Structures are given as structure tokens and as C-alpha cells.
Inverse folding.
């Protein structure tokens, strides 16, 4: 069997492994294997094929991978998490909310709450919107 075909087989296996991992390392090594295959088909000795594999792999890992990763990460949408994700969400008053506190249900969880505007009160069953979260307390305004 021709050495170039062995390098091609290695490239295919490395690319298949990348599909399982997704860290962009095996695909860079697959490109190196393609370089070794090309060298083999051009008649290079085994050490020349290995050198082509190593050079292409190092260039791909050092130069191409960081650029591709940066582009992939930049295309991911940013999502708010934890309490930041609750800002602007609607909820329902569970226990009357006034200046001294109360309880609201937001996204299935019960939170202590107080109104944004001093003196404002909300009765049980009223709809509210979360203005912000301070510690474990939701600061709320009248909802729609």
C-alpha cells in the first residue's frame, strides 16, 4: 500500500475524531496528515513525509487555530445568566409587596421583593416587572 494512502487514512480518522471532540486540534493534525500525504505522493522519503506532517501541523495549530476559534466564539450569542437574566422579566405577586417587603414569583421561583418607587404597593395576583435584583431581593415595578 502506498504511504500517501496511509496518510490520507490518518487524515480521515483525525477529522472524524474532531467531530467528536470539537476543540480544533485533531482537524489541524488532519491537515498535517494531508501534508504528509502530499509529500508521499511527490516521492519524499518517510522522514520528509514526517517533516511535512510536523510543519503543516505546527503552522495550523499556531496560526490558523487561534483565528478560527476567535471567529467561532465571536459568533456565539451572549446570554444573560443568573440574576442578570431576570431583569425585565415579568412575574406575579404572591404576597403583598410594599416598602417593608413581600414575595413575588419570577420564572417559577419565589423571590423577596420591594417596589422601586417608595410608597407603591402591589397586591397578591398583580403582574410585576423586575427592574433589578439587589442581593436576594427583586426590585419591581407594575407590570403589563
Amino acid at each position: 500500500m502506498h504511504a500517501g494512502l496511509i496518510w490520507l487514512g490518518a487524515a480521515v480518522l483525525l477529522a472524524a475524531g474532531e467531530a467528536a471532540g470539537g476543540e480544533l486540534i485533531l482537524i489541524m493534525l488532519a491537515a498535517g496528515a494531508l501534508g504528509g500525504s502530499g509529500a508521499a505522493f511527490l516521492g519524499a522519503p518517510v522522514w520528509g513525509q514526517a517533516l511535512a506532517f510536523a510543519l503543516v501541523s505546527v503552522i495550523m495549530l499556531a496560526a490558523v487555530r487561534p483565528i478560527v476559534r476567535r471567529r467561532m466564539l465571536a459568533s456565539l450569542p451572549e446570554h444573560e445568566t443568573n440574576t442578570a437574566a431576570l431583569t425585565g422579566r415579568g412575574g406575579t405577586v404572591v404576597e403583598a409587596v410594599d416598602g417593608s417587603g413581600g414575595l413575588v414569583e419570577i420564572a417559577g421561583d419565589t423571590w423577596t421583593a420591594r417596589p422601586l418607587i417608595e410608597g407603591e404597593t402591589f397586591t397578591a395576583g398583580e403582574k410585576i416587572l423586575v427592574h433589578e435584583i439587589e442581593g436576594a431581593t427583586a426590585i419591581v415595578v407594575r407590570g403589563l
